[in-house]
């Protein structure tokens, strides 16, 4: 409820003075202890995650291990004071101070990982935090809260679940200094507006419509499974999944056939069953949206291979490969966030760059080729926060992740990401006597 959210902000506000003065080594140690708790309870957390989110158990185990790894890496980072001038005139020091109360709002695709992305840097930088998981995936995050309640001082981490109704309250609260948000572009815009009155610091990691550009010099048999993985991991519900697959004409049919064969073999089932490749879509709204995109692809002239719904309760959908679609169709222009790989034909390297960039999104993108120079030439022209060559969704705690264009504001991870949880404070001391 709003009252509980108010209590959470109050607790975070009360905890801030002591926490911000706690030496960074101690804050890092506590972040490491949270990582220990994830590690010690990984099996149970992964089971909860699969049950609430839908992803296959090995992917859930991977998410818990990732969350642990990100926390551990963040706990190695510190905020050194820099001396930017020290001469006869003055000594000028630049420090990075904590901001205060941070609100972390999380999407339902990676509840644990995304929470770790916010908790780690917020705490290391000396802030306190209120975390709000998505309404359809609060369970693992609340369990984490129970596991760390005696590890973290009271009020430093607060977790509050909602019915998709507390976002506006939290992101406009005058006591909140910063919002770190992962979710849709639309909600990102709302948060920017609701933080405007008090000029909140914002980090927004939003949606994407990543290209994977597959050049005609690749080994199709080797690349197809990697493209499938890039498009279908977590049932396609990944912000940086490959969502528009541009395939060069000479290998278009061969690549389509290879992807369709992999899709046909993929086991779609309950994520807790061994051998499941794709679990269900996470929630009904997403399931309905993805099915409507498939319908529109059929109506707009695309050839849909797969994409059948399973005759059983739950939001199960077989992976779909969509041929013969291009720009101007919904499945290409919109973010599907589901198990659909649209294949778009191209012929010319310059033309594909232009088409890849003709979008409001700019999260990631990849180029696939056996010719490094040719791949690099294209990659360097893609307007996105991350461009991969011969891989996709390769991220890490030491690598800054940013959304270009309307895919985001600011950076997460790396020293750049940690810096976003701080306020610059300059101390400038004249050398002449007072
Ligand atoms: P969403 O924006 O609907 O919800 C995300 C979170 O915002 C939820 O916790 C929700 O309760 C909360 N929220 C809803 N309305 C709010 C408001 N007015 N103010 C504040 N908070 C509010 O997004 P979703 O549909 O849950 O997630 C899917 C989207 O997230 C996709 O577009 C995907 O690409 C994006 N995403 C991006 C990243 C990234 O790092 N860039 C990662 C995962 C997901």
Topology:
Elements: H1 2-21, H2 24-40, H3 42-53, H4 57-74, E1 82-86, E2 90-98, E3 101-105, H5 111-124, E4 128-132, H6 139-147, E5 157-159, H7 167-172, E6 176-182, H8 185-194, E7 201-205, E8 210-214, H9 220-232, E9 242-248, H10 252-265, H11 284-299, E10 303-306, E11 320-323, H12 330-333, E12 340-346, H13 349-357, E13 364-368, H14 372-379, E14 386-389, E15 401-402, E16 408-409, E17 411-412, H15 414-419, E18 422-430
Parallel strand pairs: 3-4, 3-6, 4-5, 6-7, 8-9, 8-13, 9-12, 11-12, 13-14
Antiparallel strand pairs: 1-2, 2-18, 7-16, 10-11, 15-17
Helix pairs in contact: 2-4, 2-5, 3-4, 3-6, 4-5, 9-10
Nicotinamide-adenine-dinucleotide is lined by residues 105-109, 132, 134-135, 164, 167-168, 171, 182-184, 187, 190-191, 205-208, 239, 335, 337, 363, 403, 408.
Detailed description of the structure:
The structure is a single chain. α3 runs antiparallel to α6, α4 (57-74) runs parallel beside α5 (111-124) and α9 (220-232) crosses α10. This protein has helices at 2-21, 24-40, 42-53, 57-74, 111-124, 139-147, 167-172, 185-194, 220-232, 252-265, 284-299, 330-333, 349-357, 372-379, 414-419, and strands at 82-86, 90-98, 101-105, 128-132, 157-159, 176-182, 201-205, 210-214, 242-248, 303-306, 320-323, 340-346, 364-368, 386-389, 401-402, 408-409, 411-412, 422-430. By secondary structure, the protein is an alpha/beta fold. The model has no long low-confidence stretch (mean pLDDT 98). It is built from 15 helices and 18 strands. The longest helix has 20 residues, at 2-21.
């Amino acid at each position: 409820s709003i009252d509980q959210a108010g209590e959470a902000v109050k607790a975070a506000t009360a905890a801030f003075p002591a926490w911000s003065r706690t030496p960074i080594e101690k804050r890092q140690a506590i972040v490491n202890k949270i990582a220990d708790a994830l590690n010690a309870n990984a099996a149970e957390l992964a089971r909860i995650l699969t049950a609430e989110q839908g992803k296959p158990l090995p992917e859930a185990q991977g998410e818990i291990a990732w969350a642990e790894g990100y926390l551990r890496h963040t706990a190695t980072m510190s905020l050194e004071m820099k001396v930017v001038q020290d001469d006869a005139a003055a000594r000028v020091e630049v420090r990075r101070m904590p901001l205060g109360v941070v609100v972390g709002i999380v999407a339902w695709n990676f509840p644990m990982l995304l929470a770790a992305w916010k908790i780690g840097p917020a705490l290391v930088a000396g802030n306190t935090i209120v975390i709000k998981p998505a309404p359809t995936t609060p369970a693992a995050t609340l369990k984490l809260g129970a596991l760390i309640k005696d590890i973290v001082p009271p009020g430093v981490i607060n977790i509050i679940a909602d019915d998709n109704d507390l976002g506006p309250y939290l992101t406009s609260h005058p006591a909140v200094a910063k919002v770190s948000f992962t979710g849709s572009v639309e909600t990102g815009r709302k948060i920017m507006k609701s933080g405007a009155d008090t000029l909140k610091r914002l980090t927004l990691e939003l949606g994407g419509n990543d290209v994977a550009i597959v050049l005609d010099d690749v080994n199709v048999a080797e690349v197809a499974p990697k493209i499938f993985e890039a498009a279908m991991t977590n049932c396609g519900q990944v912000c940086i999944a490959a969502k528009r697959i541009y395939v060069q004409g000479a290998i278009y049919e061969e690549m389509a056939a290879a992807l369709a064969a992999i899709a046909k073999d993929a086991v779609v089932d309950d994520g807790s069953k061994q051998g499941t490749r794709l679990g269900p879509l996470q929630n009904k709204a997403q399931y309905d949206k993805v099915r409507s995109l498939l319908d529109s692809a059929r109506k707009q002239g695309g050839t849909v291979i797969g994409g059948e719904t399973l005759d059983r309760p739950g939001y199960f959908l077989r992976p779909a490969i969509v041929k013969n679609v291009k720009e101007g169709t919904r499945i290409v222009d919109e973010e599907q966030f589901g198990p659909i790989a649209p294949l778009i034909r191209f012929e010319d390297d310059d033309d594909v760059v232009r088409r890849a960039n003709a979008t409001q999104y700019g999260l990631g993108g990849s180029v696939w080729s056996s010719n490094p120079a040719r791949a690099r030439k294209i990659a360097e022209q893609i307007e996105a926060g991350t461009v991969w060559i011969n891989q996709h969704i390769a991220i890490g705690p030491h690598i800054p992740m940013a959304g270009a264009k309307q895919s985001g504001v600011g950076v997460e991870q790396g020293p750049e990401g940690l810096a976003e949880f701080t306020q610059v404070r300059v101390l400038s001391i004249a050398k002449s006597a007072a």
